[in-house]
Amino acid sequence: MLVEEYSKITKEDADPRIERYLKTKTMQRLKGKGVFCGMDYVNIDKLKPVEYYSRLEHSKNVAYITSIYRDSRDEFLKVVLAGLFHDIGTKCFAHANSYKNGDILIQENDELDVKSILLQDEELLTYLKEDEILLDDVVDYSKYPILDKPIPALCMDRLDGGILGTCLFWAHTHSLKEIKELLALTGYLENTNGMCVDLTSERCRNFTGEMVLKEGENTAWFEDFFEAIHIYSSLLLSKESRYMMEVLGLALNYYEDKGIINEQSLFYLSEQEIIANILDSKYKDIWLDITSFDKVEYAKSLDEGLSLISKPKIRQCNPLIISDHLNLCEIDGISGDFYRKLNPLGELINLTSKPIRGNLSASTVKKLSKYLKNNSFS
């Protein structure tokens, strides 16, 4: 399987102590939760991943890659584990819950508290004690720049679950060989000691640790990486992706009202178990419809079917570059205005103001329309 082959690449030289944490109940629960927020179950070709990429696999690969970027592994294990645990609060269909809750632009309040979850796993707590890792050091991955950093910085979560994961599994635009080449370009820079810093760049002047791209034999490799970023950003801005996420959010509201799901089941059950419960209910027609319709188009108005205006969180990345002679700069310092030419997201962002609709049945439109009040832009 492609997922397994990818993990073989990320696991090379990774810290072996990661393995026993992977077997805990806390981590194993992530097997049944996908990275692509329910897109595994849709009927729109553009959105169907080539393979199921679980939150367990994503978390594992984040930890694997993180562990090979530092020589002092004993000191760095807490950072590796913070990366491993960062998604343990994820519920089924992930960020579709943001759409369910009307939290479209932020998408940071749809996961349960990491510390509370870890405190329920005695086996995992024992391992932390044996490795002399404090619980508070692994419950907030956002304090480690290598793992999480505000857009447009490159970080491990954005690298694996976003850029590489999208290109390999979701958009299926890249081969495993090409993904390996992109991964080889990345590195982590703790500080700018000994570096020649581009003082015209505010990010370079105020550098506080960040994942960067390392210049290879030619700048074309950089261009390959930025093309992968563009694929990631533009797919998430596509009308198909935006509409499907909105509709899944509405459906989750519907099934919550019908007592088929709740916050606990979305956390403790797998997506397949949730779907089985839906299909075993008298309300399965909604699920069957939203997983079988195959067309999304721009609507003339919000009065056409289940039409809505979807303005999602903009997912973008602009990694800093270490060029020859240890220069730290942005991509414009390497290849002129290449980045701006390659990433014309302005047009896609403008299109998010236009209403969109899918070819859903009249029955589904009627049943889900009442939940549009939770959509801030409808």
**CATH class categorisation:** Mainly Alpha
Order of helices and strands: HHHHHHHHHHEEHEHHHHHEEEHHHEH
CATH superfamily: Hypothetical protein af1432
State the helicity in percent bands: 40-55%
Number of E strands: 7
CATH topology: Hypothetical protein af1432
Helix run count: 20
Tell me about the largest β-sheet.
Answer: 5 strands, mixed
What percent strand?
5-15%
Count up the domains.
Answer: 1
User: End-to-end distance, in Å?
Assistant: 41 Å
Mean pLDDT: 90
- Give the low-pLDDT segments: 374-378
Based on secondary structure, the structural category is: alpha/beta
Task: Describe the global form.
Answer: globular
Across the major sheet, the strand order is 1-3-5-6-2
Radius of gyration, in Å, reads 21 Å
Tell me which CATH architecture applies here: Orthogonal Bundle
Quick summary:
By secondary structure, this protein is α/β, with parallel strands linked by helices. 46% of the residues lie in helices and 6% in strands.
